[in-house]
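Supplementary material to the annual report.
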Amino acid sequence: MSTNINHKDRKIHRQISLPFSKAFQISMESIRIRFWRSLITASGIFLGIAFFVAVRTGMLFPSAGPASEVVAAENRQLWLSIMALVVCTVGITNAMLMAVTERYKEIGTMKCLGALDSFIVKLFFIESCLLGLIASVLGSLIGWFFVTIIHLLGGEISHMTAIFWLGSLKLIGLSTVLGTFLTFLATIFPAIRAAQMPPAAALRVEI
Amino acid sequence: MASNEYVVRTKGLVKEYTMGDQVLRALNGVDLDIFRGEYISIMGPSGSGKSTLFNAIGGLDKPTTGSVFINDVDMAQLDAQELAYLRCHTIGYIFQTFNLIPVMTALENVTLPTVFAGMSTDDGIERGMELLKIVGLGERFFHKPSELSGGQQQRVAIARALANNPSIVLADEPTGNLDLKTGTEIIHLLKKLNREQGVTVISATHDLKMVDVSDRIVWIRDGRIAKIEERAEIELHIGEMEGEQEELTH
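Predicted assembly:
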């Protein structure tokens, strides 16, 4: 037994890099086992994107009335959509920063157990992209859906032209990309920071 | 049990922390040689540098100056991948706060190091179950850490530390969060693993119950080694322990 151990230790080995499929599997599992926590994080992303899409969808319906009022309304909507973007960015960043920070200790522990920095970053990359994508798709669709329904009930069915549909599609597509990207950005920086810390420092972090 | 071959050596270990404009020397020149198969206790009051020494030996933090050799390899010379291999295969860690991953079951926690070692899922589960049986938790493999008592969580942590057959188990105050009886059980479990599996146990502690099972005791004070005692030398002092022993039996 002991000669066996000696033999194993004598040579300097390098840790193996686990394949992407293994990282994907662990990330999926990680979202699943902390389902409720993931749901709360995702709802932060979801609400941000839904708000942004709702405001932008409203802009797809032309305002009626005298020219001066239309210009004022359009200016107002532009401001509103910029504000919506800011709220959405802050909401997503806040949700993801919290979600990563509360896992610093876990990152430190995984490093003690032999995880490579790059593998930990990979895990958070996959997890944030999956979470961001699902939440952003749902957020865009639901934000769009409700505003459209309200306008339809207001009798604006004549505005449902090809331009409206095309605009909606573009908006939903862009917002999904935006939401996923913001989620990814807000996750990856703290994750890289935590992964590069010496394990002792990551384990000391208290939140 | 202990052979005359070194498993861990430290040379002139110094660790400084900067707190504002003050420099705090947590370790102040520690030279320590540990033999393969030994059960070593690093004792000292809190703030004496025990945990800093633990972190340096385990490669969890870089010393300011000085070196740590694990199996004659200077840890400062290792790159990130070699260091990760060392943490995965050569050293097992046990913490005062257990540091189990709260969302994972006992079995998932124990199998995590085998995942990093590249073991297949089936082999990992088999290994995990075997280890949980060894630490006496065979039936509770499906429980989350929050559903286990402190002693049981520490048993899971010990099983996890052994997952990849390390030659060294490093324990930082393993009984610090446990009551007297549970703490004693954990100490005896560590001793049993030390005896039966030949794993070197290095434990930072201020729990005097550890003295009884240790081969050598390293006393640390103000970042320096105050004295190193053989187990046999302190037979005389064991009177101090009797109070605790009695408390145990009642």
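Residues 1-9 of chain A have pLDDT under 50 and may be disordered.
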